[in-house]
Design goal:
By secondary structure, the chain is of the alpha/beta class. It is built from two helices and eight strands; from the N terminus they run βαββββαβββ. A hairpin with a 7-residue loop joins β3 and β4.
Length: 131
């Protein structure tokens, strides 16, 4: 369904350090990093798309998180949600909702919410019941 998701960042080195340490928790690998152009991208191993990209805004303006925007990463299981949330907070992210069931979405929705150091809202969730 998606080709790629790009989020704006203000400081490439800080953002790259955050995502380079967080995204392997979700099984994603670095596809490319171009510090000289202030952007980088990650992917699932062996799958060309979708890509998750970070970069300074193309127009040269300030990066600002959107109101109501959120990127949600799919986790393989609930412990992966827990680990990713804890890792994000340890890397300087801010908590927007601890890991747990959200039955108002559906009976098996297990998610956690946080913001990256630039204020972009992220989610890690699992839709599967406990095995």
């Amino acid at each position: 369904m998606l080709s790629h998701v790009n989020i704006g960042i203000a400081d490439f080195d800080r953002a790259f350090a955050f995502y380079a340490a967080l995204l392997p928790e979700l099984g994603l690998q670095l596809k490319f990093a171009e510090p000289e152009n202030a952007w980088a991208g990650w992917m699932q191993p062996g799958v060309a798309r979708p890509l998750f990209l970070i970069g300074r805004p193309y127009d040269g303006g300030a990066a600002a998180p959107g109101n109501g925007q959120m990127v949600a990463f799919l986790a393989a299981d609930r412990p992966m949600v827990d680990r990713a949330h804890a890792r994000a907070l340890a890397l300087g992210g801010t908590d927007e909702g601890a890991p747990g069931l959200r039955p108002h979405y559906h009976a098996d929705y297990y998610g956690a919410y946080f913001r990256d150091p630039d204020g972009n809202k992220l989610c890690v969730c699992c839709h599967d019941p406990v095995a």
